[in-house]
Structures are given as C-alpha cells and as structure tokens.
Amino acid sequence: MNESRRISLLILSILFLASGYVSASVSQQKSVKEIVKSMSLEQKAQLVIGTGMYFPLPDSIREKMPPSFGGGLDTSTPYGKMVDKIRGYLPGTAGVTAEYPELGITSQTLADGPAGLRISPSRPGETDTYYCTAFPIATVMASSWDTELVESVGKAMGKEVLEYGADVLLAPALNIQRDPLCGRNFEYYSEDPLVAGKMAAAMVKGIQSNGVGTSIKHFAVNNQETNRMSVDVIVSERALREIYLKGFKIAVQESEPWTVMSSYNKVNGVYASESHDLLTKILRNDWGFKGYVMTDWGGGSDVVAQMNAGNDMIQPGSTATIKTLIEAVESGKLDEAVLDTNVERILNIMVETPRYKGTKISNKPDLKAHAEVTRQTAADGMVLLENNGALPFAKNIKNVAAFGNSSYDFISGGTGSGDVNEAYTVSLLQGLENAGYKTYDELKNTYEAYMEEARKTQDKSRNFLAALMGGKIPVDEMALDATVAEEMAAKADIALITIGRNAGEGGDREAVEGDFYLNKNEKDLIKTVTDAFHAKGKKAVVILNIGGVVETASWSTIPDAVLCAWQPGQEGGNSVVDVLSGKVNPSGKLAQTFPVKYEDGSSSDNFPGVAVKTEGAEDNTADQSGFSMMRRVPWEVVYEEDIYVGYRYFNTFDVPVAYEFGYGKSYTTFEYSHLKLSDKKFDGKVTVSIDVKNTGDVAGKEVVQVYASAPGKHLEKPEEELVAFGKTALLKPGKSATLSFDIDASLLASFDEASTSWITEAGDYTVKVGASSKDIKAKATFSVANDITVQQVSKAMVPQKDFEKMHR
Ligand code: BGC
Known about the structure:
Blueprint: H1 3-19, H2 25-28, H3 32-38, H4 41-48, H5 59-62, H6 78-86, E1 95-96, E2 109-111, H7 138-144, H8 147-164, E3 168-169, H9 193-208, E4 213-219, E5 231-234, H10 237-244, H11 246-255, E6 259-262, E7 266-267, E8 270-271, H12 276-286, E9 292-294, H13 303-309, H14 319-330, H15 336-350, H16 354-357, H17 367-381, E10 383-387, E11 400-403, H18 405-408, H19 428-434, H20 441-457, H21 464-469, H22 482-491, E12 494-500, H23 520-535, E13 539-545, E14 561-564, H24 572-580, E15 594-595, E16 610-611, E17 635-638, H25 647-650, E18 657-659, E19 670-677, E20 685-694, E21 703-709, E22 721-727, E23 736-744, H26 745-748, E24 750-752, E25 757-760, E26 763-770, E27 776-784, E28 788-792
Parallel strand pairs: 2-3, 3-4, 4-6, 5-7, 5-17, 6-9, 11-12, 12-13, 13-14
Antiparallel strand pairs: 1-2, 7-8, 10-14, 15-18, 16-17, 19-20, 20-23, 21-22, 21-26, 24-25, 25-28, 26-27
Helix pairs in contact: 3-15, 4-14, 4-15, 7-17, 8-9, 8-17, 9-11, 12-13, 17-24, 19-24, 22-23
Bound molecules: beta-D-glucopyranose.
C-alpha cells in the first residue's frame, strides 16, 4: 500500500469512527475482487459468519446463553469490540455482518420479516419510539390476487427498512401452504406456486425499489414447524420442481432478490443449506441467481458443506463457527477459493446497500401514510365466504353488538419472527366506533374482564417462541350466556361474532377443537347469538380473524354472513368495518382450499411426519409436542401426495370442499363473455382474452383466473392448473373490462424426471376462465402440434429411496 493510500484510509477510518456511520468511498476505488484479495483468512471467516444473535438482556443472563444467541462475546478483542458496536446500529434486528472500514467493508443489517420490519420499538435511555407498520399477513395479500397492490405494500415496507437503517429485509416467505396446520402458513401466500411466486416477485420489486434488499425464504420445502431443524422431506423430483421450487424460480427470475435464505430442513437426505444441488445447480445454474444465500438462523450442521454448497453466509453464527471455518481452510478441508467466492457474493450485494452508500437515515418513516396502505390492502384481501343479505350493512344499522374475544383483542398478525412491533392494533370495536357505529360497553367490559382472568391461567407453553418473542395467543372463547345474547338482540341492530386464531414459528397447529375445528364455546356462540338476533328479525355476521384455514362446513350457514378477514395488520378493525359498511366491496378470493374436514386434505395422512429410528439413538418417538424450534429429532415426512397439493388434489379426485381454491363473493355480480384465443394452434404462445361486466348495483373488482387442462398423455396431470390470473380495476355498475393473458409453453409444462426437463406435451389443451377453480365461466381449446422441451435442467435432489406416490 502506498503512503497516500495509507493516509486516505486512515482519514476515512477516523471519519467512520467519528460519524458512527460508514462511508464507503474507500471501496468505491476498489473492486470487490480487490477487497477480497486484501482480506485475511480470519476476516473472511468473520464476514461469512454472522455475529450471533443479540437480545438486549442483562449481561448476567446473556453470558449463560449459547454463543449464537449472544453469549460468549469477548469485547476485549478487536473483533468483540467491533461486533458490540455494530449490533447497536439497529437494535432488535435478527442479524448483522462484520465491518472493516479500513478495507471498505460495511456491515449489513438483516431484519425480519414478512408482515413488516421487525426491530425494537424502544431503546434504552431514549424516549423516541421506533415502531413499524404491521402490514396484512402474506395470506391476505395473496387473497387480493393483485400484484400491483402487493408491490405498493412492498414499497411502503421497504421505505421503513430504508428509513430505519436496515439493509436487507428477511422477506418475503413463500413456502407452499401444503397443509392447513403448518404454524407459519400466515407468513406464506398460497397452496399454489404460481400465486406464491407472483406475489413474492411483486413484494420483492416493491421493497427493493427503495434500494434495500430482500431475502426470499425459506428455500426450500419448509412446509411445517414440527422438528423443522431436522425433518427430512422425502419428495419426488417432479413435485419438488413443479410445486415447491416453482414459486422461488418465478421470484428469482422476475424480481432478482438480493439474497435467498436456505431453510432448516433436509430435502431427500441433505440439509437445504448444505445442498449443492439446491443452492448451486438449481438456484444458480438453472435459474441464474446472482445474489448471496444465507442460512436460516442456526440451520444445517456442517459449515464446510454449507460453504461448498453455495450457502455463502451462516446466521446468526458465533465465534465458535468462525474458528471451525478457519481451521477447515488451514487443514485443507475447505478450499480458500470457495470461501473467496462466498465472500465475493456477499460483497457484491454490500456495494448496493444503503449503509455502504452512506445513505442518511431519518428514523421517521411516514407511519400515517403506511397505515392507510395497510388499511386499504387488508380490505382488498378479505374474502366474503357467505352472504345472505346481511352485508353490506343496511342503512338503518347504527347499533352493533360485537361478540367473541377477538372483537376486543383483534389479531393483526402471527407470532414469532414474523411478528412486527407496531404502535397499535385497531380492534374491531374501535373500527366500528371510528366509523360512527354505536357499540356496547357492557359487552366490552364482560369480555375484557373475562380475558384478563383467562390470561392468568392460559397455558403459556403452547407456543414457546410466541411466549419468548411476543405475539398474541388468544385465550379460549368465553362461554356466552343465552340471556346476554337475548338482551343484546333486543337493543342492537346487528350482531358480529369474531372467531380468532393465532399460530406461528416454532409450532404447528392441531386438528383439534379450538384450533382447526371450532370449539364448543365458539360453535355455541355462533348458534346462540344468531338465534337470538333472528328471533328479533335481525342478522348475525361471523368474522374470521385467522392466520390459517379453519373448519367452516359445520356452521357457516348458521349466521347470515361470514367474512374471512384473516389477520389484516394493524388497521384491522378499520379494514373490516370498511368492508362491513360497504365502503369497500370485498374482492378477495381464497388462495387456498378450505376442506370440509381436516382428513380430507391430501397431506393429512403424512403431516407432520414420523420419528426415524436411528441406530444407537435413544427412543426418539417420545414427546414431540410443544416447542420444536431448536431440537434435532431424527424425523421424516414423505410427500406421498406428490403433485396433488391443494386444489390439484381436491379437483382431480372430486373431493367435496367447504370453499374451493379461488372462491370469494362480492356485493355485486359479474358476467363473463367473449372468451377469445389468439389462435387455435399453439405457436410458442397463445393469448387469452375475456370480457368481464359488472352486472350488479355497486362498483366492484373481480379476480379472473385462467386454468389449463393438459392432455396428460405421458406426463400425468392434475385436472387443471392455474396458469394466469388478473384483477379488473374498480368497475362501476354496467361497466366492462377486457382482460388478456399470455400463456407460453413454460406455463403449460410439466417436469419430466426421465429427461430432467420441462416439457409441454403435444395434444389438446382446454383453457378454463373462471371466478374460482370450480366456477368456470368459459372454456376454449387449442392444440400443441409436437412436444416442446421448454428447458433442460440439472439432475438434482433425487430421492434416495422409493416411496408410494399418489396417482390419478
Ligand atoms: C426464522 C426466519 C427468520 C430468522 C431470523 C428464524 O427462526 O425461521 O424466518 O428470518 O429466524 O429471525
């Protein structure tokens, strides 16, 4: 290094230390490759390994925690000092990476999560607050079927990431909602990979438009929480490519996320984070991903395998992992050139980050404007399941009796790392009051007093992580006295009954009463209140404030309407009332099937898998309940349903459902006409167009779904598969819109294991345009003359054992 360089580096280091914020002008003079060359082995190891997870706990407690959870940091060393400092950049984030100002390397702050930025809302010794917006959960966004809307949410979310000084948001999450019981379904979009992929791509575009990054997660096949750290998912190559990887492929290719987070689980015998097949052959070679891959927090077990696989960063990491990595290079177990590649990928992203660019942060995002975004989005993603004339509220409705615990303790989002620290949640009651409706203090007092008592005795172990990280686990529903319902029916104009559910990271739900099924108090509540109001000629409406699917078939026709509000973010009560009052006409449709019974689903026989007896191991079939976040129980789940996930199963095998994929009602009606295909013979692409007319009395939007049925000659196919979707603008009564969709060969292709390629088979295809997967409004056919090989891809992730697969 020459003298003038040395001096300028020194000045920059001093400036950096003085400002508390890194300026990156040093490295702007250096290429990333040069930076890598200038790094010591120790620095490389420190960079690829995160700095441990930091909980703002008293030192006496923290010291006792494992290294990756903040323990064991020796702050007398230069590394320890640096880590201690950078952990303070943005309190409450999930992870940080090392910085070396003298080399022009800035730290990256990685923060959760899908429903908004998760940081600490307050800082010791400060009166300022750092709240973030709790946006509607992913399931709500998918139910809007509106990628533009989702992109606008991403823009607002990414703005908070930027204004608060984070670099990468650990979102979106797009695992497939394979089974209704997965505890994290609220963070995921859909049972369908096209919906999941398009939603994720829109979200990534929105967030990244702010110049901050995303980490699409959890790659891949992380469809359950039970033993998530060790479960081995046995899945066919075809189901893997068509169902579980397809959404990620769409997101990678359409939106170029800066990073990918590998998942905890194994797939066909190999940890995702250690799978060269997954992270290099598929992600990079087949799809062209250019960013870096990080582990999920504590995922995998062999750091050398992870580096070799192309898992560039280990999170949260610890000083022990750094040591292991250095020794691996020194002993020749890991080629330093591999490590250099990992480092280079991390630095290639670093140069894009706000911290590297020296972007000034305001700490003052426009939370008011974002509250408006979340309010509107949530209303657009709610799904009207039943409506027997109760909604929208008639003009004479002024007095509303709200029943159900969750009316008073509304749930804005799920638990765990996806739980945002928002300033407030608008309850249903507040939403009603804000809109000028009169509510009843006597009901409010009764419910609040009951919940306060019930919370004291509630079983806190139900979800350990929710207890640790915050998040609302609702108390059991209060048993309502019939006389209360009758008294209220005499005074109020209408009844609302909210049924609440919550779940999240660290645990799956159960097919039991009080979880997937409504419990006795809830069912009695619906019946008692509806009967009392009907006796007075008044109506009752059920609101589902849920993060995942519940059973509805046994009770949904008792009340006069059922609105699935999901967990609609912090403005929840306002959003629900916007729909109830008719200010917003519901246009959401289900992005997942509501089965009649849990057992009707195709994964119910094998979810969440079984313990695997390993030689010499203790009996591991013992208690698997409760907290399964960090345990490594040998466990296996075999995806025998293969490609028949969600509607692909229900529609193909004619299994009756409560509400089918794509279902949702409106306050108006739509007529579909003039289905046109650009050609009857497929020539690389066919354009489908259809007219949609609002034939009702109020303005509304319609989600239009395009399904295709394939010949399925050699490659067995489900009855139909979604190939495109769109949503009209708000159509006034009598107005029409023409929607058109381009269908190319890739949208029709299936994965052929024999040739390891995507193939669109020759033969006749039927295009079905519908208002749901069952409510098909128009059909047309076209033919493909010869088999088309869309893409030849890598042979990868082949199951190591045979297993029975479902067939038509
Ligand atoms: C979760 C991730 C999350 C990470 C960091 C993990 O336990 O699975 O979704 O991003 O923690 O908080």
